[in-house]
Amino acid sequence: MLMAGLDDRAALAAAQDADTAAYERTPYPTLIHPSTHPDRLAVVARLVGMDPPDLRTARVLEVGVGNGFNLLAMAQPFPDARFTGIDIDALAIGVGQGWIEELGAHNVTLLPMDLLDAVDRLAGPFDYIIAHGVYAWVPAPVAEALLALIGRLLAPQGVACVSFNTLPGCYLRLALRDAMLRAIGDATDHDERMARARTALERLAGPDGGDAPMRETVRKQAKETLARADVGILIHDELNPNYTPAYLHEVIARAGVHGLDFLGDSSPELITEALLPRAVDPAANHQRQLEQLVCDGDEADFCQFRRMLLVRAGAAPARVFSASNLSGLYAASDAVRHGVTFARGRRHVQMPDPALGAALDRLAAAWPGRLAVPDLGLDPDRLRALVDLSAHDMLALHSGPAPFATVQGACPTASLLAAWMARAEMPWLATLDHRVIKLDPVAVAALLVMDGKPDEGRLAAALAAGAMTSEQALTAMLNEALFVA
């Protein structure tokens, strides 16, 4: 048995070394993941009666942090919070540490650390723990170590977010993976392997094979995979040697071994999953009822991806809606009224209820600011409808006031991170509410002179090359959460 254990550890070490080498050869693209923001996690926790820690002083851990950009962007508006990231890829960590020094982001710490070591060595606790794109892409012992680490380090009212590819939906992605691996064959050259993989996807995305329902489903999935143009995503997702999607019920059971309960999902459209529908069995265990309903839904919907939230066992006291749980939340919306119809982006809803319509009007007038939910003056039934509206992306619920400027100041100061990205000519900018945007080049030029000092004609000079006025540029930046509070 001892030799078998040693053999297992040697095989695991070899697998991790190969994985690290793959990331060093082809880094995962620098991205921001809005669904991992602690604000999302705290809102769901409050809906079920928990008291999650204040983001302004929170302790946040990201596992599998890569170069740390997601964590760095989170940390910008919260100088009194502490953000820690760990990753086995020392080169990526080194890149992120360089960015931290350039930006003076001293509330962020990045550590090169193996998860198998961190499970025993990393000091905690942490109020929010994030593991995006780790669980289904690592060997089974590492996935288990992730849940064990959360079980050891999560604060009593803390929330963890573990995202992973799920079954049954990812059986289709596994089929595409098999087709790509068959096409790759024994090719060892990196570029040749990627070319063969793309050729396989292009074949499956093509018109051959008729229009049978299953053929059309495969065609659509192949097109979606091809649309993820970055080769790093293809290599580290579908072609990862450890790629192992899992059923949600399996992960919930494994988390339970480590003293953790399923809370819900951080996707805004799934916010109501944390709450049981009105028709529930009062005699049954509410937690188990909810888990059963959600897992049944995953199978019916052929779910492919989960942003699963975990809390300490027994920490979520209420699985039925209570209006009092919204008392500490804030709401924000820029929905535009057209009669009794409200539009936000590509979403449209009919809102014949005068009280709810008036609430959306007030939120739009306060945009980009946030209003405390109790100040909207809604009764319990309409507060429940407000949560439903957030699931339909007509408004966003938040755990606190806006951590960025919401009114125009005399001498606005741009986000240090956004200005740094603009100077580096990155194709997108990170906002202070954890989104990515593409800003008009003229507005980008204006952003670079927003340093809190008197204007003295600098803004007009920056805008001289375009048709945008000073007021338009400042409004665009304010509405995109680019100014420091």
Give the topology, please:
Layout: H1 2-25, H2 38-47, E1 59-63, H3 69-75, E2 82-87, H4 90-103, E3 108-112, H5 115-121, E4 126-131, H6 140-153, E5 154-167, H7 171-184, H8 190-205, H9 213-227, H10 231-236, E6 246-247, H11 248-257, E7 260-265, H12 286-301, E8 305-312, E9 330-332, E10 336-338, E11 341-344, E12 347-350, H13 354-366, E13 371-372, H14 380-391, E14 396-398, H15 416-423, E15 429-430, E16 436-437, H16 441-447, H17 458-463, H18 470-479
Parallel strand pairs: 1-2, 1-4, 2-3, 4-5, 5-6
Antiparallel strand pairs: 5-8, 7-8, 9-13, 9-14, 10-11, 11-12, 15-16
Helix pairs in contact: 5-6, 7-8, 8-9, 16-18
Give the key terms:
485 residues, eight-stranded mixed β-sheet, 43% helix, disordered N terminus, 16 strands, globular, alpha/beta
Description:
- The protein has 485 residues and is an alpha/beta fold.
- Helix content is 43%, strand content 15%.
- The protein contains 18 helices and 16 strands.
- The chain has helices at residues 2-25, 38-47, 69-75, 90-103, 115-121, 140-153, 171-184, 190-205, 213-227, 231-236, 248-257, 286-301, 354-366, 380-391, 416-423, 441-447, 458-463, 470-479, and strands at 59-63, 82-87, 108-112, 126-131, 154-167, 246-247, 260-265, 305-312, 330-332, 336-338, 341-344, 347-350, 371-372, 396-398, 429-430, 436-437.
- The strands form four sheets. Strands 1, 2, 3, 4, 5, 6, 7 and 8 form an eight-stranded mixed sheet that branches. Strands 13-9-14 form a three-stranded antiparallel sheet.
- A hairpin with a 2-residue loop joins strand 11 (341-344) and strand 12.
- The longest helix has 24 residues, at 2-25.
- The radius of gyration is 24 Å and the shape is globular.
